[in-house]
Amino acid sequence: MASPRRSRRTRKELWVGDALLTVATAVMATVLVQGFDGLGDPVPIGFGLAAAAALSVVLWWRNAYVVTRSIKWNGDLALLFSSVLGISLVMVAASWFAEVEPARAWQLLLTGGWLVNLTAFRVILARRGEVHAQPVRVVIVGNSLDALAVRLALRADPRTAYDVQGFVMDRLDDNMPEVVSRLALGSVDQLPHVITKTRAELVVVCLGALDADRFAPLVRELNIDGVDVALSTGLGKVALRRVNLGYVSGRPLVRITAPPLDGGHMLIKRAVDLVGATIALVLSLPVMAMAAIAIRIEDGHRAIFSQERVGKGGEPFTIYKFRTMIAEAEDVLIDLTNDLDGPVFKMQRDPRITRVGAFLRRTSIDELPQLINIIRGEMSLVGPRPLPVREVEAAPRRFLDRQAVKPGLTGRWQVSGRSDAGFDELDELDRWYVDNWSLAQDLEILARTVPAVLLARGAR
User: Fold this and answer.
1) For position 274, what pLDDT does the model report?
2) Between the CA of residue 240 and those of 161, 233, 236, what are the distances in Å?
């Protein structure tokens, strides 16, 4: 949450840079494939310019045009990669429907060029930002606990440097944290004086710190002096795309819409699942064949492990995986110690895992047979973790919320620590996914899964 003036300027600069790079990449791809004569061909140039314009719109809509102090795969690059790959898929589909298809080499060069050029552009700007960015001076208005929570959030935000000058509150508690009492600057009535003294650029007001009769006049007064005001709503982890601001009888009203878990959105998700899983299954058949042979050679037992899992709406289904444990693994489960703090079973050094199985787990090859479950409609490419029936039966009732969608081959649990997380954290990750589902989030998770698998983060 940068100062709005600084954010608007930064967004425009980054947008212009992206626009120039996307167009230049389209021209470069055309020249490399067809030579300079290709610049007169309306097909690649037309598709390239249209795709470049669409990419700029998507990145702007997804709030990607912010220069950050550091580039993180989990945020900035994942957003960029998922947007580029999404536009590229749309371009391929559009060319197919229009029966005018640019060269495959051109499409690959365009997509790869966008990924490389736009990533390099952001890395360069981030490094410049680390050297030249001036921290935003902030004053926080609210009770001690809320103000402290906002301060921690601002200090953890990788997108902008914040310099929290202190806290403003009407009531000082005797048992407030030492850092709050040390940074207390005065009461709300003294806020104009505090702003002058600290030269603050931004005032963050915690929800409930001021009533409506005091809040509106204060905002007008601060804005006249060139100070921006932000409201910490206390909405927690609700996705911003579900939050809408409206007015009822002149009063602002925040409305949180339900996630689109039915209708056309789910048809699109199913189409992505079917196409993606089919392509992945065909491409991975040689790897799957080698994995099956290795398992059979190691101990002579079957290569495929099947188990009943709980799917959408609580319906059971049979999941398929490559067997990574000894054949009688289920019989010795009761004698082992669970590393997690809930009904979900996990061991860091499970003695039942075979040598081949350890490799398959580390590389996530053991999950590939689940592509069959996806094609059959029992699972999705992205979704909550598919859990065994006995674990779901032992879980708290709130765990049932995750059954509103199909379980996934990957999900937030895979890219956010995977099985290293505890039971409560796994539950929270799955519930957040269901509550805030969108196709854009699915594409982002798929993009983040690639490095999670390659680096074997949390896999075991």
Assistant:
1) 94
2) 22, 11, 10
Contact of 221 with 192, CB cutoff 8 Å: yes
Q: How far apart are CA 454 and CA 458, in angstroms?
A: 11
Q: What is the pLDDT of residues 196-226, one digit of tens each?
A: 888 888 999 887 777 777 888 888 888 888 8
C-alpha separations of 53 from 56, 57, 241, 388 in Å: 5, 6, 22, 46
Domain map of the chain by residue range? 4-132, 136-234, 264-454
CA 288-289-294 angle, 5° bins: 95
Write b or e for each residue in 325-336: b if 16 or more Cβ atoms lie within 10 A of its Cβ, otherwise e. bbeebeeeeeee
CATH code of the domain occupying 136-234: 3.40.50.1980
Of 159, 93, 175, 190, whose CA–CA distance to 167 is shortest? Answer: 190
CA distance 429 to 425: 6
Taking the chain, what is the end-to-end CA distance rounded to the nearest angstrom?
A: 37
What's phi and psi for 413, nearest 5 deg? -65, -25
The CA distance from 215 to 239, in Å, is 25
- For tokens 């009822």, name the residue: 248
Beta strands 184-186; 316-322: pairing state: unpaired
> Could you give the residue ranges of the DSSP H alpha helices within 98-250?
104-132, 144-156, 178-183, 191-198, 212-224
Query: Are 154 and 218 in contact, with CB atoms under 8 Å apart?
Result: no
DSSP 388: B
246's enclosing H/E stretch is strand 243-248
CB 52 within 8 A of CB 22: yes
User: 130 falls in which pLDDT band (50, 70, 90)?
Assistant: very low
| DSSP 8-state symbol, 353 | B
Q: Which of 393, 382, 376 is nearest to 440 (CA)?
A: 382
